[in-house]
TrEMBL record:
<keyword id="KW-0732">Signal</keyword>
<dbReference type="GO" id="GO:0045087">
    <property type="term" value="P:innate immune response"/>
</dbReference>
<dbReference type="GO" id="GO:0004867">
    <property type="term" value="F:serine-type endopeptidase inhibitor activity"/>
</dbReference>
<dbReference type="InterPro" id="IPR008197">
    <property type="entry name" value="WAP_dom"/>
</dbReference>
<keyword id="KW-0929">Antimicrobial</keyword>
<comment type="function">
    <text>Damages membranes of susceptible bacteria. Has no hemolytic activity. Not toxic to mice. Does not inhibit the proteinases elastase and cathepsin G.</text>
</comment>
<keyword id="KW-0044">Antibiotic</keyword>
<dbReference type="GO" id="GO:0005615">
    <property type="term" value="C:extracellular space"/>
</dbReference>
<dbReference type="InterPro" id="IPR036645">
    <property type="entry name" value="Elafin-like_sf"/>
</dbReference>
<protein>
    <recommendedName>
        <fullName>WAP domain-containing protein</fullName>
    </recommendedName>
</protein>
<feature type="domain" description="WAP">
    <location>
        <begin position="37"/>
        <end position="84"/>
    </location>
</feature>
<keyword id="KW-1015">Disulfide bond</keyword>
<comment type="similarity">
    <text>Belongs to the venom waprin family.</text>
</comment>
<dbReference type="Pfam" id="PF00095">
    <property type="entry name" value="WAP"/>
</dbReference>
<dbReference type="InterPro" id="IPR050514">
    <property type="entry name" value="WAP_four-disulfide_core"/>
</dbReference>
<dbReference type="GO" id="GO:0019731">
    <property type="term" value="P:antibacterial humoral response"/>
</dbReference>
Length: 84
């Protein structure tokens, strides 16, 4: 957009109606904290050597898994597993 070249980065954001760096950083910090609080205890088990995986996504986060199971990623396979 014309006329933005001489402005600071913060002024450009304001001119375009976008959130400031401080607001975006705060929003990111809140997201990270919320994600941490939603994570269930424990860690995902390791797959035995030589175990093949298929590309399937069954969950997006721990909250989508039943009970105490965690959402675990193995290559392109994302599934709910009991934690270790």
């Amino acid at each position: 957009m014309r006329g933005l070249e001489a402005k600071t980065y913060e002024e450009r954001l304001q001119e375009l109606g976008l959130a400031s760096l401080v607001k975006r950083r705060t929003r990111g910090d809140r997201r990270a904290a919320f994600q941490y609080l939603r994570e269930k205890p424990g860690s995902c088990p390791k797959l035995p050597p030589g175990t093949g995986t298929i590309c399937v996504v069954k969950c997006q986060n721990d909250q989508r898994c039943p009970g105490r199971q965690k959402c675990c990623t193995y290559g392109c396979m994302v599934v709910c597993k009991d934690p270790v």
